[in-house]
Specification:
By secondary structure, this protein is of the alpha/beta class. Helix content is 45%, strand content 12%.
């Protein structure tokens, strides 16, 4: 009987340790057999995850919470992922209300003493505004979290992430991190120059954007586009348009002579199709990657891939060369 009790106690202890490793293994290495003992950076969104990985290089293990093709406005965390945040050396998040279901976990990590960096708040944020041609915008005046559609702001953020890593992540080689950031910033500068050259082929009167929700304000500001409006007159995909919103937008599109709507490729284009019906079918719906990277090899596996794909699609969709 004593042997059976002892075995039962050992088994319970093992199960407890396994459970602890599953919960904390992402930071201690025990869940993976003690493999990666580098300092750990946890990033909320996959776009910021790619930028952070390019900056950190091999100096830290970067864990990204948001899966490919997910929606940053609506994705949530498991208990294990929430624990990752509180055991990280540094947490990088977008902020400005983007990760609506994750913010409380980031705040909990900050309260427990983890260093956190809100990239959007450091990127000279713009505010949402009504459509340039009268299209609706429910959140006019609120900060716009979608800074990554401007590669120049991403270049600034990459440098700031390097600063955060050097300051808060013990054990990294500062020179290596700085070199990584400098190299990546050069690639971002090349991207911005290529985008500007591509967009310059679009006739001035066609540089007008209608999207499924307000997401390209920074791109419009940087490259000289007019934002006519959005099918969902909001900066979040969780909102829904009213019939009056659709009527307002169709009037604005007709006034501006716009017949192209850009919709995120990771979500159904149903609302854009509704707009097509409102305007008699003479509307082109063009897919873009706006708020999430894809898996590797599926069109937007990295931030650079995403922006090049979007630029090509927008240039073609608006009549550029």
């Amino acid at each position: 009987m004593k042997v059976r009790v002892a075995v039962a106690r050992v088994r319970a202890l093992v199960l407890t340790l396994v459970g602890f490793c599953v919960l904390a293994g992402t930071t201690t290495g025990c869940a993976s057999g003690g493999g990666d003992d580098r300092p750990r950076i946890v990033v909320t969104t996959n776009i910021l995850g790619d930028i952070t990985r390019e900056t950190a290089g091999d100096q830290a293990a970067v864990s990204v919470l948001m899966k490919p093709n997910a929606d940053p406005h609506s994705f949530g965390l498991s208990a294990v992922q929430a624990a990752e945040l509180e055991h990280a050396d540094l947490v990088v998040h977008n902020g400005l209300g983007l990760e609506e279901n994750v913010l409380r976990h980031v705040e909990a990590a900050r309260a427990s003493g983890v260093a956190t960096f809100a990239a959007g708040e450091a990127a000279d944020p713009l505010t949402f505004h009504g459509g340039d041609e009268g299209g609706p915008a429910e959140e006019a005046g609120e900060p716009d979290p979608h800074f990554w559609t401007d590669p120049d702001r991403v270049r600034k953020v990459a440098g700031l992430i390097a600063d955060e890593i050097v300051e808060h992540v013990d054990g990294v080689n500062e020179k290596a991190v700085r070199d990584n950031a400098e190299h990546y910033e050069g690639r971002l500068a090349d991207l911005a120059a290529w985008m500007e050259k591509s967009f310059s082929t679009i006739p001035e009167d066609r540089r007008a954007l209608v999207t499924n929700h307000h997401v390209f304000g920074y791109l419009a500001d940087r490259f000289g586009f007019r934002v006519i409006g959005a099918v969902v007159p909001s900066g979040t995909t969780l909102a829904s348009p009213s019939s009056s919103d659709l009527r307002s937008l169709t009037r604005a599109m007709e006034k501006a002579g716009v017949r192209t709507v850009f919709a995120d490729s990771s979500r159904p284009t149903r609302l854009a199709e509704v707009l097509r019906q409102e305007m008699g079918g003479d509307v082109d719906v063009v897919a873009l990657y706006s708020e999430s990277l894809t898996d590797k090899g599926e069109g937007a596996g990295t931030y650079l891939d995403m922006m090049r794909a979007n630029t090509a699609a927008m240039t073609e969709g608006l009549g550029g060369n």
